[in-house]
Amino acid sequence: MRKVLIAAVAAMIPASAALADWASDFKTLDTDGNGRISRTEYEANVSKLKLDPAPTFTAMDADVNNGVDEDEWATAEKMAKAFPVSCKSSGESWCPKGY
Length: 99
Hints:
Layout: H1 2-12, H2 15-18, H3 22-29, E1 36-38, H4 39-45, H5 57-60, E2 67-69, H6 70-82, H7 85-88
Antiparallel strand pairs: 1-2
Helix pairs in contact: 1-6
């Protein structure tokens, strides 16, 4: 289930964003510095990352604890970088099942 959610996030992140500095992006969103991005922090600051479209918070929050920790953020980054560009732009569900 977690892979499916992260794959959904990866599908929404453009290739140029996948190359961005994800660690800095995490710090940008984690405004209180507690090591986790709350839904409130995400919604207030996601526009600073200039992602179009931005991944949904729910898709990244794999453990459904209303926060995205560094592990969840790293998983989203790995999936975004591994997800083939052709699958990102596809309107069909022909991409390999691993994605």
